[in-house]
Amino acid sequence: GFWSREFKIIVRLFAVLLFLCGYSFVHAAEPGLTPLVEQRRATYYERGTARTKVLFIQEVIDTRGTDGLRAIKSVIKDPQGKIVMTEDTVLKGNDLIRDEIDQRQVSYRSVVAVEGPLVRYEVTREGKTKSDSEDLRPNLFAGPSVATKIVTEWDRIVKGETIEIRVAVSERRESFRFALVRAESQIAGGET
């Protein structure tokens, strides 16, 4: 139903955020000369197995060109090394240009592309393609660019500012507005 899709989106955003926090630095850029390339790797385990049963391994290559373009390639493999999903995201600065997902296990492919004043959505499942478009609105993000936005705005969020974003959801062929806000938490000893 409706909530299960939203729940999956939230879980995915959280996983991407955690993944971004654990990156390893590969190559530093010299301004105007070479691109910056970072590689990250995460292992996802089955719940309740004390990290003994691997479900998926995710590898990400994040390349920032000297022209302001950023390409994020994410590959998810099963424990035997077979690719089950890929995601390719292109940004210009913080602006989404394109996000493409290929979920090979379920024969699903989606594209979110910014084309002038429009956002174009195309979803292909089991050979049947559906497409739609909507007007481009400010602060549109998809895939790994959502976690990047959270990291970039972290200081403002911690200070209590509300950050408004839109997340493109290819499955629904539309975007949704979210507010990133600081949630108070209780720490042992009564401090917040």
Distance between the amino and carboxyl termini: 36 Å
Class from helix and strand fractions: alpha+beta
Order of strands, widest sheet: 1-2-3-4-5-6-7-8-9
Radius of gyration: 18 Å
Residue windows where pLDDT falls under 50 for at least 5 positions: 6-11, 14-33
Q: Looking at the structure, what is the overall shape?
A: globular
* Beta-strand segment tally: 12
Biggest sheet: strands, sense, closure? 9 strands, antiparallel
Strand content: over 45%
Q: How many helices does DSSP assign?
A: 3
| Global mean pLDDT | 80
User: N-to-C SSE series?
Assistant: HEEEEEEEEEEHHEE
Report the helical percentage. Answer: 10-25%
In short:
The chain is of the alpha+beta class and 192 residues long. The chain contains 3 helices and 12 strands. The longest helix is centred in the N-terminal third of the chain and has 20 residues, at 2-21.
